[in-house]
User: Fold these one by one.
Assistant:
Number 1:
Amino acid sequence: MKQGSSNIQQYAMYFGTYMGIYWILKFILFPLSFKIPFLSFLFVGLTLGVPFMGYYYLKIFRDKACGGVISFRKAFAFTFLVYMFAAMLAAVAHFIYFQFIDHGAIYLAMETQITVFLEANQGSTEYTSLEETFKEALDYMASLTPTDITLDNLSRNTFLGIILAIPTALIGQRNSKKEEN
């Protein structure tokens, strides 16, 4: 493979595809968690594993493509690109799900959970402000189109990719022996 940015891009696309598939499989747990609550714990656990997966891919890239030496800048670029490619792949799955499969099921499940929560807390002093806040949130959610939800998830995943790429690159960078002395 060629050196430089095309090398980074090729590896990032490769590993981003695997991470994107992981995110898609993880996303399947989200709507199912409204019917099977244990799956929400599994969803959160798999989500917490994403940065470790990013570091693992960086380590493979550093050792195989860079000869064990990688600068912070190159490590950041690679890791961010992996997250970006994964986010784009997951966005396609999100759009397909919300456009053709969901038909408001997640919204109805969340509305049901909020209603149960409000009924349980009806006598509390914060009830009125909670009820108003939840109603506003539900109204906002009801107004979202599948495209809106997909773009929101894509931008959130890309932003989090930038944030996660910083510590991953700091931990994964390795300088050559000459520079260390």
Number 2:
Amino acid sequence: MHIPDNVTPLDQARPDADKAWNEKKKERTRAQLLEAAARLVADRGIDAATVNDIVTLANVAPGTFYNYFPSLEAIIEELALGVREQVEANARSRQRARDPGSRMAQVMRAHLARARDDALWARLLAQFVVRAEYPVRVALLAGLEDDIIDGIGKGQFTAEADESAPDLVIGALVAGMLRVADGHVGRDYDRNLTANILRGLGMVSAAALERAQRGL
């Protein structure tokens, strides 16, 4: 029987189809493991997650884990990388406003909006941001810290130019992200928190609210 040039014989098509199906299955299994690890870390903390708990929650065979990740630390590090990349994406998505207060307001509102859309991400961030071995805090501070220093130098903020100012911002922002993720805040919460953080740095109250209202 003659097979037209544009038709693949079954003995050739089946291996390709099987390969594609196997690849999709692997992708699904890997995603299941990451999802399970994320939920465990978010709920129990980084140190409380175990490989056995991950495979149980993911509903896969115990040995399957090591087909995808060489160790527990490897999957934790991948989760931290995903959190950090989203933090960086949030910061890049802001418009480059001229003054430091406006830049800070935009990036803080971007983080709060993301927490509302992805509660698991916000809860993971809260776990990683307090651990120096994961670069999440560094990513969260990037840009914000420069804007704090710039704002103090330009007289927009009256806070002291030391490590306490970034701590104030990060502490309030992460706490706010968790509250937003829980869904128990009003619609003006993002604006009000942003304005209060700017006020905490010494910005005039009306100016802080005006910048916070600009949102994204």
